[in-house]
Every structure is written in C-alpha cells, then in structure tokens.
Write a structure and sequence with these properties.
Structural class: mainly beta
Helix content: under 10%
Distance between the termini: 25 Å
Order of helices and strands: EEEEEHEE
Radius of gyration: 14 Å
Largest sheet: 4 strands, antiparallel
Strand order of the largest sheet: 2-5-6-7
Number of domains: 1
Shape: globular
Number of strands: 7
Number of helices: 1
Length: 91
C-alpha cells in the first residue's frame, strides 16, 4: 500500500464470515494467496517471504452487536506503525 520497495500483493479468498479477528502476514517483495478453510487460512506458496506487519480481517463491529448483516472489514499495518483499512465485502 505504501513505501518505496518492490511491489507486493496479497490475495485473500474468504469462504465465510470470520468469527474472530484474523491476522495474516503481509508479503515481503512477493505475492501471496491466502485461502480460508473454516476459521484457518492456507498460504500459497507455503514458503513465501512475509513481513512482521499484518493484514487484519474481522466482522464489522456493528454487525457483531446486531447480527443484521455479514460485512468484513480490513486493516493493514503500515511501516510507520499506523493502520489503514476499509470495507472488504459482504456475505
């Protein structure tokens, strides 16, 4: 999202609404595919280099309180320590 290094890409395939906060590691100068299997994720390629920074996925807080829809939001940890995110999609 930010920075001046080599471009990296993470593709995240959600098959159902996350029931808890999910933290996935950001790729390090590579491309990664995360595929959800229940509440766990598989990573492809398995040996892809990652950073210590995360991508967080969770059910929208308003949805946790009301159970009226199934929206997913994301937050990406930035190199400077901040976070940036938004709406990832709905089920």
């Amino acid at each position: 999202m930010h920075g001046s290094g080599t471009f990296s890409k993470a593709i995240i395939v959600l098959r159902e609404i996350p029931l808890r906060l999910i933290k996935l590691y950001q790729p390090d100068e590579s491309s990664i595919i995360y595929i959800q299997d229940g509440q766990k994720f598989s990573i492809f390629p398995e040996n892809a280099p990652t950073l210590d920074r995360t991508i967080e996925l969770r059910r929208s807080l308003s949805d946790i309180n009301t159970n009226d829809s199934n929206n997913v939001v994301y937050m990406v940890e930035l190199a400077g320590g901040g976070k940036q995110g938004g709406f990832a999609g709905g089920f």
